[in-house]
């Protein structure tokens, strides 16, 4: 008897956590809950979990979409992308008809992470934002061995993706997307100095070259990864001084501060823009190149014009099934301290269809579908 008990204890202590769950075995969270952490060490901190819950509830209440975070140890022999997509569709994340669900899925012991986009939020701009969140927020966080920051920043990025998706801006000719704005910034940046076009902020070692990506992202992810690597190369390619022909030297992050204006330094510290300073020793001349982050939470300040505005939103009137809502957007400039407050309307909520297995109006399993758009990462 004792030996048998010992075996059970040993099995539970050593065997069980290593065993992966099947998709069917992952317990669906109760309605109105948006986080599942099944890792054996309970990786997610309560404060991060609370933020994820608040984010998910707010997005759902505003009728914009559903954002779910699932962490487990391993998907065993099943590829993590396939597992995550099957889980997404089994739970039906997102509202039926709108298909506005997004799943951030982490197989922690496998060192794999997947973003699954619902069919309503997988347009090229959404896909680009998803790749950027993966490459700039999630993978670097895990590589730093800071899984909580990886998940927290990743979820914030995916919230932005949902908020800025064209699905939620049907009347805008050009969708007000943070990602594309920042991207345009980098295109028009410092034209005088003629930097290479389409340059982004990603260092080459952080670009995703996950081999399976193209298959699931319909090729877009693969092209995106190749494009990002190409841009990173363009950014670091040698520069010659036009005046004297000497090879310029790229200054480090500390040295270059002396050549930047206060507003530019504020942009760098907020991560919205990165500047490269190329020094010519004989001429004592600097060439400054500006790289807007492909993905940023920071807005352009309407007063000083730097990308240093920290945004926060407050719901004034919640959207219902009958009418849209209204929210107040406060932008506080981290450089000139200017505060602007504006209001914007939020779309009416979409009633979940009764064909769903759950008849609740506030269900985590709304019936949204995904065909597999999104991004893959590993660390
Ligand atoms: Zn020179
Ligand atoms: Zn300002």
Give an overview of the whole structure.
With 379 residues, the protein is of the alpha+beta class. The chain folds into three domains: 19-171, Diaminopimelate Epimerase, Chain A, domain 1; 178-292, no CATH class; 298-346, N-terminal domain of TfIIb. The chain is built from ten helices and twelve strands. A five-stranded mixed β-sheet has the order 1-2-3-4-12, with helices on both faces. The protein has a four-stranded antiparallel β-sheet with strand order 8-9-10-11, with no helix packed on it. It is globular. The chain binds zinc ion (ZN) (2 copies). Residues 301, 303-304, 306, 308, 333, 335-336, 338 line the site of one zinc ion.
List keywords for this structure.
379 residues, Diaminopimelate Epimerase, Chain A, domain 1, N-terminal domain of TfIIb, 12 strands, binds zinc ion
- Beta content comes to 15-25%
pLDDT averaged residue by residue: 78
Radius of gyration: 23 Å
Profile the largest sheet.
5 strands, mixed
Task: Give the CATH class of the largest domain.
Answer: Alpha Beta
């Amino acid at each position: 008897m004792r030996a048998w008990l010992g075996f059970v204890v040993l099995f539970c202590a050593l065997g069980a956590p290593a065993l992966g769950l099947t998709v069917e075995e992952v317990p669906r969270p109760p309605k109105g809950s948006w986080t599942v952490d099944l890792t054996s060490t309970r990786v997610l901190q309560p404060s991060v979990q609370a933020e994820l819950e608040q984010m998910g509830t707010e997005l759902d209440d505003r009728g914009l979409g559903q954002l779910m975070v699932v962490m487990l140890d391993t998907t065993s022999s099943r590829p993590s992308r396939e597992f995550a997509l099957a889980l997404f569709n089994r739970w039906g994340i997102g509202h039926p008809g709108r298909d506005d669900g997004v799943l951030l899925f982490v197989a922690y012991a496998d060192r794999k992470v997947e973003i699954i986009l619902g069919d309503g939020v997988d347009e090229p701009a959404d896909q680009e934002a998803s790749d950027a969140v993966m490459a700039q927020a999630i993978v670097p966080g895990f590589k730093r061995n800071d899984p909580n920051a990886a998940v927290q920043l990743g979820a914030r990025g995916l919230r932005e993706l949902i908020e800025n998706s064209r699905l939620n801006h049907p009347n805008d000719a050009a969708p007000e997307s943070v990602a594309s704005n920042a991207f345009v910034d980098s295109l028009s940046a410092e034209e005088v100095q003629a930097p290479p076009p389409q340059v982004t902020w990603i260092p080459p070692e952080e670009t995703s070259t996950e081999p399976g990506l193209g298959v699931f992202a319909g090729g877009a992810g693969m092209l995106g990864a190749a494009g990002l690597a190409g841009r990173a190369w363009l950014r670091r390619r040698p520069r010659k001084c036009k005046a004297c022909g000497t090879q310029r030297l790229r200054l480090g992050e500390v040295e270059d501060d002396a050549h930047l204006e206060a507003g530019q330094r504020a942009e760098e510290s907020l991560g919205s823009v990165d500047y490269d300073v190329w020094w010519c020793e004989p001429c004592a001349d600097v060439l400054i190149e500006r790289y807007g982050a492909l993905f940023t939470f920071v807005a352009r300040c309407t007063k000083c014009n730097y990308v240093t505005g920290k945004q926060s939103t407050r719901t004034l009137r919640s959207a219902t099934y009958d009418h849209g809502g209204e929210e107040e957007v406060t932008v506080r400039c981290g450089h000139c301290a200017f505060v602007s407050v504006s209001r914007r309307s939020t779309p009416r909520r979409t009633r979940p269809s009764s064909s769903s297995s759950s008849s609740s109006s506030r269900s985590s399993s709304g019936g949204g579908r995904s065909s597999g758009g999104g991004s893959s990462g590993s660390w």
